[in-house]
Amino acid sequence: MATTADFRNGLCIEFNQDLYTIVEFQHVKPGKGPAFVRTKLKSLNTGKVIENTFNAGVKVTTARIERRPHQFLYKDDLGFHFMDSSTFEQVTLQKELISAHELMKDGQEVEILFHAETESPLNCDLPPFVTLKITYTEPGLKGDTATNATKPATLETGAEIQVPLFIDQDEVIKVDTRTGSYSERVK
How many C-beta neighbours within 10 Å does residue 157 have? Predict the structure, then answer.
């Protein structure tokens, strides 16, 4: 059990029969009336963000969440298969639990969040940036660089993103997994 004084960003709590992580919180002490804590909570099961106000000093149940490194093995009809890097146990996840699953290639290192009491997987996070090879893109036209023009490009994982005109086929680029957008070219 914890109180509102223990709130910090990233703390996982049990609230309304669901697991939430605190995205943002603000302790408010108005001139008139009791103090309270305004929070933004993100559901670990659905990804939905809600706002809630707690009275100061209220007790909440914290949840133990563990991040474990895993390696992506392959995808089939059952889902995405991962292997724990330390115990070599395999876990199968559905694509709803994986952020940016279209940017994941075989052998990719990821972190999977587990609820420690039930040992159930909650979420799978890719690293902030991944390097991928472009398998197909149209050639850029010379002189079309007056604006930040982009063109579609297909990556080795099959995902399609927008890249600048100067990027050519078979180049390796860095992709931001949080937004799914082009970041920079890899030398």
Answer: 19
Closest to 77 in 3D by CA, of 100, 96, 103, 95: 95
Task: Write out pLDDT tens, residues 30-40.
Answer: 998 999 999 99
Whole-structure pTM value: 0.75
Domains of the chain: 2-62 (2.30.30.30), 66-125 (2.40.50.140), 129-185 (2.40.50.140)
Beta bridge partners of residue 69, listed in sequence order: 111
CA gap 125, 143 in Å, rounded: 39
Which residue type sits at 160? E
Where do we find the tokens 């408010």? 28
**pLDDT at residue 99 above 70?**
yes
